[in-house]
Write the structure tokens for this entry.
Amino acid sequence: MRSSLRVVVAAALLAATAAPVLAAPSALIRCDGYGRRQTPGEQVGRGILILGTLGLFGSAEADNPAAREAGEKGIAACTEALTDSRTTGNPVRRAEVLMMRGVRQFEMGRFDDAIADAKAARSVELTPLVRAHFDRNIGAGSIMLEAFARLSQNNQAEAEKLAFQAANARPNGNFLTEEALRIMALSPEVTADERFLIDRLWRLLPNLRPAVNLEGAGDWVGAAASVKTLTAGMTKPGVVILSRLAALQALAGDSKGAEETLAKVSQDIDELAAKAGGTDQAAQTAAQQVARADEMVQLARAQLALNQGKTEEAKGFLAGRPRWLSPAALTAQIIANVQAKGGAGTAPGVDPAKIRSDAAKVAREAVTGKGVLNLLVTMLPRWEEPGEAQDFGKAMTAPSKLMQPKPSRDGAATSISSARVAAIDTVTEALLVAAARATAAKGQDRFAVLLNFILPSTNRAGLTSRLSLLDFVTPADAAFAAQEARAFKVADIEAALGGQYRPPEPVKRTGG
């Protein structure tokens, strides 16, 4: 009897300590990987959004992005999730589910259905105050989803129009603007809208994107000027970007500038080549940079020789290379220029038209179909709590020691950094505000961004930054002169963003 009792007790203890049976993920989790959201409320007196204490419809459930279903299963999960009380009682959460279903429709090639879901996502019923914030994140993300769907339907004009609209939802952020310019780069001409975004991004984020779009349109003067300004803001420009500058200067007809750049980069290439003889990673990287730079130096010298009427010399610089890995637009143009003058036998087997068409195909595949799916699933903006901006405002305001300006580049510039995780465009806006206030504290009225570095990640808000750094100069800095055309006015940044990026006002207590 005692033996039987021990068996029963042991079995009961075993059952009590065994791992619990985990419930299968709900349709909501299988749709986009996230559970319920608090419903945004309003505090009209202060004109800000606050987290609602009510409206937490449905059960709590741990987030699990790994449980997302793709394709048909994802569509079915999102459709079922639209009947969940966590979405029927919360229009923001409903919009996110509609947007993810639209992404899965896109994945399956049902572009009209994807567009319908994107439109439905931004058509949910919201109060005006919530709508204003919604339009900066989910609203903008749904417009960009529709732009990619239109592009996949070969409707370039409508895709560009929508991309421009999405980018303008966050005019002082860089992510959506860069995505819009990737779409616009597929067409051979630079439209007025594209030019507007190029100029805006050029001030926000100095990189090669403006040059890429301008090269694609054959604007060699504009591309050369862009890269020259970019290198002027670098402590030590690399050999690849300098050799690209030389080729662009030669194409733009600036033979003197190209020769000066070639003299500089040739010395730098020689020094780097001395480091490329080993077998470690540093040596391999150096060897790759030397190879890429040497190729563009050859192209630059070919175009320079052509500018000087030395056609046979130009042909010699192109001889013996069956394949070119340099940027397609400038490579194809220089080879075509030399072939037009040199006739038969110039760069045999190399077809500039094929170089262009192959590059266009690769660029298009990157922003249509499977090529863009990860962007749509994980990176497009979703809802971000409106208090993020005020938290950044707190971080940049004394007595906080976060986001405070510090000298950089041996005192030639000023740096501001942040380790706060937030949507990438929110971080960029916050850094601009912090730079504007630091500039004003120096008695200056303008600043130019030299570096806008983001260490990316993803979370529920979409593409985020884990670490961000912004280097800038003011008119009091020697490096400002070369960047003056890219400068922001402090007053403009404060007018556009200052009200959002301030710490919350103390709550006034009433009564005894």
About this structure: The chain has a mean pLDDT of 90. Strands lie at 40-43, 48-51, 406-408, 413-418, 422-423, 446-459, 462-473, 488-489.
